[in-house]
Amino acid sequence: MLNKIRLFHRQLNFQSTPVERKKCEASLRHSLRIEPEQNSVKTLEWNPQLNQNNLIWCNDKTLNLADFSTEDRWLTLFDIAPEPKLKNHGKLQMQRRQYRQKIKKTIESERNASNTVAAQFLEEVLSQTERVSYTVIKHFSNLNMSRTNQRIKMLEIYLNAHNQLSNRPPTENSTYIQEGIFKIPHKWGIGSKIISLKEYINFTHNFLANYFSEYPIKAIIGHDDERNENEDTGLHTHYYLSGKNKNTGRYDLRIRQVEIVNEHLVKHNLSNELLPQDGKLTHQQSKVLGHYYQRVVQGYINKNLLNPKGLTTEFADETEKASEQYKHMIVQAKLPKSNREFNFYNRELTKFKNQLELLKNETNDLNKQKENILPMLATAIEELDNTERFLNQQQMELDNLQRQKELAQGELDTLGMRYLALEHSVDSKNDELSYVESELEKTENSLRQVNHESKALLENIIESVFMLLLAKTKNNTALVEKFTMQLTNNINKKLPVSLQPMLSGAIELTKDSGLTQDV
Prior knowledge:
This protein is an alpha+beta fold. It has 15 helices and 8 strands. It has 4 domains: about 240 residues; about 70 residues, no CATH class; about 110 residues; about 60 residues, no CATH class. A 6-stranded antiparallel β-sheet has the order 2-5-7-6-3-4, with helices on both faces. The chain has a two-stranded parallel sheet with strand order 1-8. Strand 3 and strand 4 form a beta hairpin. Helix 13 packs antiparallel against helix 14. The longest helix is centred in the C-terminal third of the chain and has 106 residues.
């Protein structure tokens, strides 16, 4: 199943009039990407960032247009565009016509005079449609003829007029150059990966060579820069086809187009619509010519370019043709490239306008949202203020709590110091208690050491002290000595340390009595 698309193909025929020449030069400046003059207000028709993509076919070679200098491009323009009208164009045309008749009469006269070589020479000159070298005059002067000087002067005047007019159409209204364009519009999405620019150029060349082999192709220029960097569609070619038949020298390109259409009509059994072969068509016949010529183009591009790629181009149906959009498109196609709505500049402008409109809509939506949000924002601000006041109050309470905490901490520190002091005191008391307990234990141990013998010894000492005191009381010297000796012996015995105070007391008791001598 072939994907149906639309093809844009249009032709512009430029004549040699000053107005048409100016239009042709403007078109060529666009096609050759000759930059506008400095300070020009001309709108940009292509994307300068993509200029390196453009190609040009000329002199049987396909080259990169970016490699052409500005001078090369101007030279190409002057080679293609109609030449400016000669100031004495009408006079030269009259001279050539008059002297052509004179040469014809001379040929007849020289034949009658048996100067056959001279007659044939002049016939050969008259058959030339292109420029004739002036060296033929010297060759002609060496031939046998009557009234030689007059004949030579006649040939000089004819060649002067002929050579100046040889590369110009017979009338300013003759088609001097035809510009054509082949393009698949952006909307169909056929990018360079499907049809490359070289394929477009090759197709254009093959089409022209197939149908217009007798008419020189001046140039084919391929454009791939009338788009954004992120696109790959809109590739197209401009071709410039000479209106002059290289075999006949006639400017009869329109007649050739009529022949092509008539061949198509015969092939499709439409002979009743055949057009006048001389190319003199009525307005209605011109519409028929345009319609069927587009059919020829359509058939050729489908067969040789589109169908192998799964594509086919077809005409818009009658409903589409009748639509305002289609009519508008036809009007646009007749405008200069810089004024068309769908050129690069206007496509970019439309894109930015759409973006601006989108931004406006988004801004309006945001404004509406803003209006809806403002009351909510006011409420939120009020709540925020209330929250801030609450937070300030809480902060004050927090500060009070912090101060209370600091006071409590101070008291806690004081109590802690007191606790530490008490703990130290308790430790000291514990140490004392431990000491006392230790001493008590020692004392208890000492008391335990007081055994039966210690008790007996102590009893003997006490008894001796008592008896000594009693003897001293009675002044019984013998008993005093006896008990003193007895007490001395008991004292000299080992007595536990714990009993030493008691012994000392007993001794002190004997001393204090004054009754006896010191023990």
